[in-house]
Design a protein that fits this description.
10 helices; 2 domains; 8-stranded mixed beta sheet; Ig_E-set; Rossmann fold; Enterochelin esterase; alpha/beta; AB_hydrolase_fold
Length: 398
């Protein structure tokens, strides 16, 4: 089956100009339902002559964009190339096109008819600037939709110089909307891998103005690229810096609560690993941890290769899971989400079993997608509802 509009283009019933207007009005990819839980999804590009086009999606074994092997095909007599794939109808995913040709290397570009959404730029460059497909049965992310429509909130920006680490990083601080009463001591969330264009402050604003969460500050902490793969991998020195330098620095400048139940540490991927590990080891500082697709399969001695060396490989229990198994339950509430279609969900399920057996107050969910900011940006709203619901004196669930 092919999309009806592509059929009209290929038969000449529609001119390329009319087809282009259709794409601009309807958006891409084009979706046709074929049964109760499956759809045919047609991607369209207009790349120019002598150019091959392939699709890559953030679903699959690779952390990042996974290539789909089939090339786009030309629609005869037009400048368009198309690729139709049958998919489950509940997916949401980031994707890019790779354009190549005899005179150039493959270049990754977003879908020209589906520009990247507002919060598509992120700290990890290989994930940034992607288009997002939302298939008809995908779980809605209404608070992300509202956040994308809002003006950017005001933020303070400062540089935190760490004496213990011997480096510095940018920190962005976003206070909640509205006037604060005198003597306020706001709850707050510290988000690792922070950028000034992160969705978290706008999502927070939408929830606060809807009366669903307590007014809270959002702190976005930059991870310098050269240090990210060290600092976020269960690094005791970095975790101590957050407790001993960042928190006092924040309390000196802003009216923030000192109750650990009012403090959340959040992160995605490596950042989620760091958030969970730091909260476990510093529960008097962080009473909440937000783990979005955490890299909880990490262990410094856990590597994979090929050849005879594999015959001697021993697989240790990953660090975050091992530390939870070895310790008494900490007074930390944990929000944990992961993609159903990403390789790390096996370790996430293992971690959730351990946390549940230990008696943690935790919420775990899987979403229909991969290791993908397209989900994390919106599910952060659920994390805030979990951590700071309005009327939270009894720590009741949202």
């Amino acid at each position: 089956m092919s999309d009806p509009s592509v059929e009209k283009l290929s038969t000449g019933e529609w001119s390329p100009e009319r087809f282009r207007r259709h794409l601009e009005q309807s958006g891409t990819p084009l979706v046709e339902r074929v049964c109760a839980d499956e759809v045919e999804v047609t991607f369209v590009d207009e790349p120019g002559d002598d150019t091959t086009v392939t699709l890559s999606v953030v679903i699959g074994p690779r952390i990042g964009f996974n290539p789909i092997g089939t090339e786009f095909t030309s629609v005869a007599g037009t400048p368009f190339r198309v690729l139709t794939l049958r998919m489950r109808s509940d997916l949401r995913f980031s994707y890019v096109f790779t354009r190549g040709g005899p005179a150039r290397e493959g270049e990754q570009v977003p879908d020209p008819f589906n520009p990247p959404p507002r919060f598509s730029e992120c700290s990890v460059e290989r994930f940034s600037g992607a288009s997002v497909a939302v298939l008809p049965d995908a779980a809605p992310l209404p608070w992300l939709d509202q956040a994308e429509a809002r003006p950017a909130p005001a933020m303070d920006s400062a540089v935190l110089a760490s004496e213990s680490l011997g480096n510095e990083r940018r920190v962005w601080i976003s206070m909640p909307p509205g006037d604060l009463p005198d003597g306020s001591a706001l709850p707050f969330v510290i988000h690792l891998d922070g950028t000034p264009g992160h969705s978290a402050p706008s999502v927070r604003d939408a929830l606060v103005e809807a009366g669903l969460i307590r007014p809270c500050a959002v702190i976005l902490v930059e991870q310098p690229g050269s240090q990210r793969d060290k600092e976020l991998l269960c690094d005791p020195a970095f975790s101590r810096m957050l407790v001993e330098e960042l928190l006092p620095w924040l309390h000196h400048r802003y009216p923030l609560s000192r109750d650990p139940a009012d403090v959340a540490l959040a992160g995605e991927s490596f950042g989620g690993l760091c958030a969970g590990w730091t909260a476990l080891h510093h529960p008097t500082a962080f009473g909440n941890a937000i783990l979005q697709s955490p890299s909880c399969g990490y262990h410094p001695d856990l590597t994979w290769g090929t050849g005879a060396g594999e015959l001697l490989r021993r697989a240790p229990v990953p660090t975050l899971i091992a530390d939870h198994l070895a310790a008494e339950a900490a007074p930390v509430r944990i929000f944990h989400d992961v993609g159903e279609l990403e390789g790390s969900n096996t370790h996430s399920r293992w971690l959730d079993h351990v946390l549940t057996a230990k008696g943690y107050d935790t919420r775990y969910r899987e979403f229909a997608g991969g290791h993908d900011y397209a989900w994390w940006r919106g599910l952060f709203a659920d994390a805030l509802l979990w951590c700071f619901p309005l009327g939270n004196s009894d720590r009741s669930h949202a």
